[in-house]
Amino acid sequence: xxxxxxxxxxxxxxxxxxxxxxxxxxxxxxxxxxxxxxxxxxxxxxxxxxxxxxxxxxxxxxxxxxxxxxxxxxxxxxxxxxxxxxxxxxxxxxxxxxxxxxxxxxxxxxxxxxxxxxxxxxxxxxxxxxxxxxxxxxxxxxxxxxxxxxxxxxxxxxxxxxxxxxxxxxxxxxxxxxxxxxxxxxxxxxxxxxxxxxxxxxxxxxxxxxxxxxxxxxxxxxxxxxxxxxxxxxxxxxxxxxxxxxxxxxxxxxxxxxxxxxxxxxxxxxxxxxxxxxxxxxxxxxxxxxxxxxxxxxxxxxxxxxxxxxxxxxxxxxxxxxxxxxxxxxxxxxxxxxxx
Length: 340
Hints:
Blueprint: H1 79-89, H2 102-119, H3 121-137, H4 144-158, H5 162-165, H6 171-181, H7 184-194, H8 198-202, H9 208-217, H10 220-229, H11 234-238, H12 243-254, H13 257-264, H14 270-275, H15 283-289, H16 294-309, H17 312-315, H18 318-331
Helix pairs in contact: 3-4, 3-6, 6-9, 9-12, 16-18
């Protein structure tokens, strides 16, 4: 049926129904607006126009309907930045100047080391030959006759140069092997070359093992000479990272009672050493004979032991532990059960 014959139902207010408006007459207009009504175009209403207006912002253009929005144009960079970029890309300091390769740098360093070693022909040739003998001599398959022959060859190479070769990481192993497998004459000859610098050897990372080898395989006279050379240097050696291990090994494994007391008396202070005699050799006997010097001796012990107490590795040594016990025993007579 046609819509022309129908009558629209009017409400009390005189307005029309709230249903859909007829097609083509839809307008968005408010009661207070005086301007023209805005119409909405459907997709494809007119040819030659876009189907829909995009809400995305187009760089360099104005948004439709907003004439006051500022335009964002592609600004060109200043000339100074362009010049700087050209310098970076150029030959002077840009990407073309490549860093040296690690393989080339390593190769040059190796060549420099070889030239330095060949210039010092006196020690370099000896080290190379001695290491070749050492490689054959230290194997278990090497029999006694062959080892004795190699030891004689090695003795000729090392004679008079042990002091200079003792501080290197490779040549010190050769000397240790020579001390271990050598006879008494060969060890004595080697000991004569290093006996004046035992404290210095003990403080080195590699040569300290030479001193320990003499303590292991040396004679009683050689061991006594080594321990005697530590006298006057015990405090500094105990606080040294490398030398403390040598003193600890000598005190625990090789020293007799008299030698142990000699190593420990330096930690009791100068006052104790002044009043110490062969008849009164220990701390308890000195305190009994000289009771008025008790406070002076204990104060000196405290000054010596305080820096050592700050190092955990030092306080674990048997020598230092013994002196600590003596100090607490006589400094705190009522609390003898104190443990460290």
